[in-house]
Write a structure and sequence with these properties.
271 residues; Rossmann fold; 6-stranded parallel beta sheet; 12 strands; 38% helix; 20% strand; elongated
Length: 271
């Protein structure tokens, strides 16, 4: 059966993204017949005025590249630049984006995107950005980000400043209690994770991994899946195109196989 003929009818899907980012995903799931329930497992806290991001933006022309790895990072830069009256679109650096959603957020602000990697992963971003040797690079990232991307860029000769652009904080205890009620009542059979932080957030909220034992788990990509494995979970599906649409497609494929516990990539291959 082709993906175009598949549906998500009967799926009861928990969307774990922050509230401001869950609407479009939920709408897409519902158009395919799923019951989508959005309960965030993390919340995004913007940077403080006068903090590291402000200092970096005030000297933006000092950099050759700004490499953005999330829509949240772009929004933080835009918000603080507006407060500081800095025009990012006319600034000196070239901009790179980890994937299409991040690139769209930049372009919507009038910022030209010079580079998007062939695979929408920070590892590919670090390998594929060109002309990086002896260049100064700004990485505006969450406080939860690892230094892996910065290390790759430095190994290639770049001078890198990784600054905290926003903070990833746990969702509220009330959100955790709601998720426990939904699981206990059998109103969820599938959990979608769109970042490593959403995985860690859900495990922290539930306080135990056993609550997820009978649920199907789909991850947007290998970094998110690795966080799930680290938390003692076993992803059933991992998207090979690391976008929301890629996640939808792997969920469609999984549903088309009547799968609640098998393991599929975006092309349905057993993993």
């Amino acid at each position: 059966m082709s993906p175009a003929r598949l549906s998500l009818a009967g799926r009861r899907v928990l969307v774990t993204r922050p509230r401001a980012q869950s609407r479009l995903l939920c709408e897409r799931l519902r158009t395919l017949g799923a019951r989508a329930i959005a309960v965030p497992t993390i919340r995004i806290v913007g940077p403080r005025a006068g903090g590291p991001l402000d200092r970096a933006l005030r000297r933006l022309d000092h950099y050759d590249w700004v490499i953005t790895t999330s829509v949240n990072g772009v929004r933080a830069c835009l918000d603080r630049a507006k407060a500081l009256r800095i025009d990012l679109a006319s600034a000196r650096p070239r901009w790179a984006a980890v994937g299409p959603a991040t690139a769209r957020a930049l372009r919507a602000a009038g910022i030209r995107v010079a580079m998007v990697p062939s695979r929408y992963l920070t590892a590919a971003l670090g390998r594929e950005v060109r002309g990086i040797a002896r260049r100064r690079v700004l990485l505006p990232r969450t406080d939860a980000a690892t230094s892996d991307l910065a290390r790759v860029l430095r190994a290639r000769g770049a001078v890198v400043d990784q600054v905290t652009a926003y903070h990833t904080a746990p969702a509220s205890a009330r959100d955790g209690a709601r998720i426990r009620r939904l699981i206990g009542a059998g109103r969820i059979d599938t959990v979608l994770f769109t970042s490593a932080s959403t995985v860690r957030g859900l495990v922290a909220l539930l306080g135990r991994r056993g609550a997820l034992r009978n649920l199907a788990i789909a991850c947007i990509g290998p970094v998110t899946a690795a966080a799930a494995f680290d938390a003692g979970l076993r992803p059933d599906a991992i998207a090979t195109e690391h976008t929301i649409e890629g996640l939808i497609q792997v969920l469609l494929k999984m549903n088309g196989h009547g799968n609640k516990g098998g393991r599929y990539g975006a092309h349905g291959a057993s993993r």
